[in-house]
């Protein structure tokens, strides 16, 4: 069993072209050129965007939830999980599954955006220790590989 | 001479930057200055208590028992909304971790190209097109992020807040995306409560004066005068505030945008976030999804490494925590932290004879805590 060390991190930014709704850009970062196929990453990001859209949908169910909660002075939120929280759990499961199936075998790791304030989708790039030539890119001195 | 290895469970709220105060082990989050919030509480609870004490017995008997019952319901609703507004996370955006901040800096530098020396670099702004309107995203130097649209940095709480409306000292917290609807309902129901108490005070005084005369009435229920005074002044401000926020909601605008005039003047009618339909705007703001907090205040910090505590003299340790990738907060020094401590893995970097020679490779150590200051400790085995 070999260990991998962190080389660098890539951050996929939010796409605000549709407003303040949570969406991530599908633009492919150049740092990942040789690491993963474009289509796979695009598929992951698109699926995540669909999940967030489902969570933030302003429609029949959110009205019902809102009105019911208001009628109980929002006390019901202490007992009940909101729809958004349910979708976040689904997202967390999806990311874990993607990591296991697709990203870890390629030396990558997705971080759930909720852990970064929903600002970025963080992708960590790892290299097998012992492989030569991979050094942290300049400016990334704060990610140290070994302590 | 004994060494005890204890693990201090540190929750994330303890290490959050910003000027918020937390209570109930991270469940409650407020601004630092809470004086005016206590005044708000005092005024509401005080006035309602006077109402229940002086007016309600008379009105329940002479008019209807439904009157105090409805007053109680309204009062409880007002308190629930106030506490929800004050205690919840308004939508604080966590600061960028070092890697993210560096990544953004690199992007900015790449975009700026070569700036001739002596010249100031261009302002850090990103342009985004939303609904055919160009929106400028500003860079926050404190949080090291480009603020999302509608977010703003609150200087009182020292946080960037999503959909920042304003900082309200009366509720002791910022009003933002997550607690705006509670704030609005608070102003609305407080207006109703104020009108209700004011109206029934007048009714009560009139009814009693018919029986006993005006002066006797005031003598018997002195609280009435106080209530009427408080309600009179509160009424105008609360009704005005509720009306103002109703107007903002119908346009899907924040107080911050209104004050800055982002969508007024020649930009009027071009608010990219508005659905151009009052009902839709109201529904989105009041019945939209309830956004979860992204702060994770009660999560446990990743660095669960042991803290060394000795029972005598100043402690020393050979490997204090270096900045990990999980936290941006610096080490919290206390009187036990040696001045010249350097991060090092080797156990041989001990500074002074210490009683911990008998345990194996030095672990990373979080801020040293002394037994009296530790809240949650548990004894763990050495690894």
TrEMBL record, chain A:
Where in the cell? Golgi apparatus membrane
Q: Ranges of Low complexity compositional bias?
A: 130-147
- A Gene Ontology cellular-component term: Golgi membrane
In terms of Pfam families, this protein maps to: Erf4 (PF10256)
Entry's Gene Ontology BP terms: protein targeting to membrane
All copies of the Golgin subfamily A member 7/ERF4 domain together span 10-122
Mode of membrane association: Lipid-anchor
Residue ranges of the region described as Disordered = 128-147
For this UniProt record, the keywords arranged alphabetically read as follows: Membrane
Q: Which InterPro entries match?
A: Golgin_A_7/ERF4, Ras_palmitoyltransferase
User: What family does the Swiss-Prot or TrEMBL record give for this protein?
Assistant: Belongs to the ERF4 family.
Please report the name of this protein according to its UniProt entry: Golgin A7 family member B
Organism per entry: Cyprinodon variegatus (Sheepshead minnow)
Automatic annotation (TrEMBL), chain B:
Q: Which GO terms describe its molecular function?
A: protein-cysteine S-palmitoyltransferase activity
Which locations, inside or outside the cell, does it occupy? Endoplasmic reticulum membrane; Golgi apparatus membrane
GO annotation (BP), single: protein targeting to membrane
The UniProt entry's GO CC annotations, sorted and at most eight, read: endoplasmic reticulum membrane; Golgi membrane
Q: What is its main location?
A: endoplasmic reticulum
Indicate the segments forming the Palmitoyltransferase DHHC domain, all copies: 136-260
| Catalytically driven reaction(s) | L-cysteinyl-[protein] + hexadecanoyl-CoA = S-hexadecanoyl-L-cysteinyl-[protein] + CoA
Which UniProt keywords are given for this protein, alphabetically ordered? Acyltransferase, Endoplasmic reticulum, Golgi apparatus, Lipoprotein, Membrane, Palmitate, Transferase, Transmembrane, Transmembrane helix
* UniProt xrefs under InterPro entries: Palmitoyltrfase_DHHC (IPR001594), PFA4/ZDH16/20/ERF2-like (IPR039859)
> How does the record classify its membrane topology?
Multi-pass membrane protein
E.C. no? 2.3.1.225
**Class in the EC hierarchy, top level:** transferase
**Where are the bilayer-spanning segments?**
36-54, 66-83, 182-206, 226-250
Q: Does the keyword Acyltransferase apply?
A: yes
**Region feature (Disordered):** 305-383
Q: What is known of its domains?
A: The DHHC domain is required for palmitoyltransferase activity.
To which protein family does this belong?
Answer: Belongs to the DHHC palmitoyltransferase family. ERF2/ZDHHC9 subfamily.
The name this protein carries in UniProt is Palmitoyltransferase
- Give the originating organism: Cyprinodon variegatus
């Amino acid at each position: 069993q070999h260990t991998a060390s962190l080389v660098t991190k890539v951050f996929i930014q939010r796409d605000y072209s549709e407003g303040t709704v949570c969406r991530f850009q599908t633009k492919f970062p150049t740092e990942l050129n040789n690491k993963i196929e474009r289509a796979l990453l695009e598929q992951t990001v698109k699926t995540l965007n669909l999940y967030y859209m489902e969570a933030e949908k302003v429609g029949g169910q959110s009205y019902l939830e809102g009105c019911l909660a208001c009628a109980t002075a929002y006390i019901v939120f202490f007992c009940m999980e909101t729809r958004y929280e349910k979708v976040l759990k689904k997202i967390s499961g999806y990311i874990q599954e993607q990591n296991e199936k697709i990203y870890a075998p390629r030396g990558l790791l997705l971080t759930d955006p909720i852990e970064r304030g929903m600002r970025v989708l963080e992708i960590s790039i790892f290299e097998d220790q012992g492989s030569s030539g991979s050094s942290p890119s300049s400016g990334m001195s704060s990610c140290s590989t070994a302590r | 001479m004994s060494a005890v290895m204890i693990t201090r469970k540190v929750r994330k709220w303890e290490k959050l930057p910003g000027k918020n105060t937390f209570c109930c082990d991270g469940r409650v989050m407020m601004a630092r200055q809470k004086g005016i919030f206590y005044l708000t509480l005092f005024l509401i609870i005080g006035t309602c208590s006077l109402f229940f004490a002086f007016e309600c017995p008379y009105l329940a008997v002479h008019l209807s028992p439904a009157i105090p019952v409805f007053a109680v319901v309204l009062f409880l609703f007002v308190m629930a909304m106030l506490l929800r507004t004050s205690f919840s996370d308004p939508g604080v955006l966590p600061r960028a971790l070092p890697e993210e901040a560096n990544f953004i800096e690199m992007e900015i530098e790449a975009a700026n190209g070569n700036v001739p020396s002596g010249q100031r670099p261009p302002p850090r702004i990103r342009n985004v097109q939303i609904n055919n309107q160009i929106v400028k995203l500003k860079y926050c130097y404190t949080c090291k992020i480009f603020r999302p649209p509608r977010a703003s940095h609150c200087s009182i709480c020292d946080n960037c807040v999503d959909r920042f409306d304003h900082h309200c000292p009366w509720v002791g917290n910022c009003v933002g995306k997550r607690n705006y609807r509670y704030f609005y309902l608070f102003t609305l129901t407080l207006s109703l409560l104020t009108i209700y108490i004011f109206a029934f005070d007048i009714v009560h005084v009139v009814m009693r004066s018919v029986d006993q005369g005006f002066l006797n009435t005031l003598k018997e229920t002195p609280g009435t005068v106080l209530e009427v005074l408080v309600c009179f002044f509160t009424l105008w401000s609360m009704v005005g505030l509720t009306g103002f926020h109703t107007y903002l909601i119908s346009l899907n605008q924040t107080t911050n945008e209104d004050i800055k005039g982002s969508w007024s003047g020649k930009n009027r009618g071009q608010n990219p976030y508005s659905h151009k339909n009052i009902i839709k705007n109201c529904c989105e703001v009041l019945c939209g999804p309830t956004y979860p907090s992204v702060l994770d205040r009660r999560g446990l910090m990743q660095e669960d490494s042991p803290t060394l505590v000795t029972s005598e003299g100043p402690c020393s340790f050979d490997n204090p925590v270096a900045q990990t990738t999980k936290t941006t907060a610096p080490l919290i020094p206390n009187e036990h932290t040696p001045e010249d401590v350097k991060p090092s893995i080797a156990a041989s970097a001990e500074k002074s004879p210490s009683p911990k020679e008998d345990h194996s490779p030095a672990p990373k150590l979080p801020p040293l805590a002394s037994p009296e200051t530790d809240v949650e400790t548990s004894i763990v085995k050495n690894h």
